[in-house]
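ingest -> validate -> predict -> emit
validate: passed (alphabet ok, no gaps, 110 aa)
predict: started
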Amino acid sequence: IEIDGAQVLADAVIVTPAHGDLTARMGDARAFATVTVAGEVFAQVALAIERGVCARAIAAQPRVAASAWPWGAVIRFAAATTEQLVAAIHGVIGPTVRAVLGADPFVRKW
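emit:
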């Protein structure tokens, strides 16, 4: 991700058995997502997203991790099903993003 020509995030996820048994490491997770909210308008709400994720119980399912940055937030999700993954994304970023944009980003526009 670049903002004003400066790279603020270079991200890659590598899933390989070279780092250990995948079944043991992934548990029941079969659906994964990395979501970023970036830009000046999201800089302030990034902390709210991070705090909301941090308030979740450690063992909560699906698993969610977030980090806030001056330019926005990075949120990672791991769920047993696609349905759980989508619900988690909507629940974690939906209210905040709707408030900033003034519209629901998950509603089809066409």
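The mean pLDDT is 90.
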